[in-house]
Amino acid sequence: MALPRRLLPLFLRRGGRLPSSPAPAPTPVRALSTAALPADALAAEEEDDSITIKGVRISGRPLYLDMQATTPVDPRVLDAMLPFYLSRYGNPHSRTHLYGWESDAAVEEARARVARLIGADPREIFFTSGATECNNIAVKGVMHFYRDRRRHVITTQTEHKCVLDSCRYLQQEGFEVTYLPVRPDGLIDVAQLADAIRPDTGLVSVMAVNNEIGVVQPLEEIGRICREKGVPFHTDAAQALGKIPIDVNQMGIGLMSLSAHKIYGPKGVGALYVRRRPRIRVEPQMSGGGQERGIRSGTVPTPIVVGFGAACEIAAKEMDYDERRVSALQQRLLDGIRSKVDDVVINGSMEHRYAGNLNLSFAYVEGESLLMGLKEVAVSSGSACTSASLEPSYVLRALGVDEDMAHTSIRFGIGRFTTEEEVDRATELTVHQVLKLREMSPLYEMAKAGIDIKSIQWSQH
């Protein structure tokens, strides 16, 4: 007689055993990429790992060098998450039984781990669905709360699209927004920022590490200016968390947006830091049950929050090692490309930069053609949120990069699990593809012949 499905968990908990069945064959471990597979294994891999996009069959696993878009989950993070999917699955807001209590304790431990990584109090951490939601709550929430006295926001032209769109939303509501320009190296002029602050300025929002060019803004200087002027300072630190040292008190940060999937944690969870002393008030942007002290309603997803906490704990222990290793790989990639290809431009400051982000422009090469040619390397031409657009990157245009060079940019993202072999293979493929495209480019021939291409008057037909 078959056991009813609803009684199966109780049956197993009380020591019941199901009839034995043959153990399933173990799933073979597969590499993340096929770069180093032998020929016979590569053929089998391609056979069962191919997809078709717009009629084009793509097979195999390309090298992954797009760490600014997302990172793979660290196996240690996955290990921490699994119990909260399989056995400790209670709602952390259930206050009347063990399942709820243990989930709530796990959420609070994760909150403490996130707080420790940035030097904050756990009570200042609010879990959300990700950095985009954090940025919306921070920018709109602060200005809506102080709308009677503060009607002015300052941000930069190179912010993430969700910050820029939140500012445009506020403009439609009658708020004023100042979009600060950046220098050719991607850094803001802090003196210009200080001059832009007005008595009615309610928020300054400047990204910590730019997602497209990896430039690290002078957070401590910005925080000092904002503290002196009495203005809350918000920073989108999705690309900075776990990669550069952050201390919210030393840097004078009032609000900070964080994301788990940029630091080898799960997708779908982020955290907003909101300073308690001096207290910054935020108007919630979503109605609901009042979870997360009313700032972000909705059931806190225990497994991925636990994963976020585990990722932060690992980052705190291994940040220095990761930084040294990633820096060496970045230099290896850059030297390898520059040794064989000329007219390569680094976009953004090299001195003030997170090493895992290397944004290069290759003169006389169309970036989209280069991307299509690099089928064995997963890279990007810019932000993953806007890279489907054929328009040149607004970040590069803000740096003063001309349209032709902006169209040739490629962003290489290096991370914790990137290997020297992958970097060498990516170098080889990039060099080959750039040289191949330049051989077909009449513009490259003209430039090498000493002709000033910009001086040519092209006829219209």
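(ticket continues) Second input and output from the same batch:
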Amino acid sequence: MTAKSARQEPARVDILGVRVSAINLPLALETIQSWIAERKQRYVCITGAHGVMESQHDETLRTIHNQAGLVTPDGMPLVWMSRLLGHSRTRRVYGPDLMRALSALSAKQGYRQFYYGGDVGVADTLAARLCETYPGLVVAGTLSPPFRPLSSDEDAGIVEQINAARPDIVWVGLSTPKQEYWMASHAGRVEAPVMIGVGAAFDFLAGRKAQAPLWMQRNGLEWLFRLCQEPRRLFRRYVWIVPAFLASAGGMLIRRASSAFWLRTVQRLRHLKTG
């Protein structure tokens, strides 16, 4: 790794055992662009409180996050935590926003895109809409896998299809944590420099689902908007996740503050003894 590429690797902040990138959208784009230029192979987890809390009882998922090239803060709670822990420049790097920004950049740079995931037809609709919005965008391929476990032969065929398309970026639109597991298990097999798990961004940018208003996104209330849209599917996730994250994160901050207080106290006592 050169000194230049080393400087491009963003800092990470430990939030309940998950090393979240202290990042903003321009730095995320710069980092991903450097991977493509150097033909590195990395995957990106776009993670909110849900991913962090799932990682509390799923050690494999936590490892997958911590081995990712980037773990972007998808929700405002992670942004607020990162700032409280000393990274004041952290901003939300939201999946749909990253997809739009990277599509615009790709249209200029000629980066080839592959869209993997979504219901039947969603990846095709997504690709068509993005090509219309960003003239010059190169789509290497699309594929919507069946909603069942794949045989080893089927999986090998998918990898072969993706590699034959020679994409620079593979967008993975599966549900969390399925997409994180998929990217980690295919790292080194999929030859593209970058895989990015964006989940619901496929449906949002394909026009199948509405996004929360900006004021809700900026104030950490997107979960409430999505819960109202899909109460049966998301009730357990958000009714459990939000309070659990707030309690765990609050406890973490209290422990850190307590440790810092006692450390300062001990240092002062030592100073008084030697003074």
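Agent notes: Strands lie at 12-15, 18-21, 42-47, 70-73, 112-117, 138-143, 169-173, 194-197. The longest helix spans residues 231-274. Closing as not reproducible unless the customer responds.
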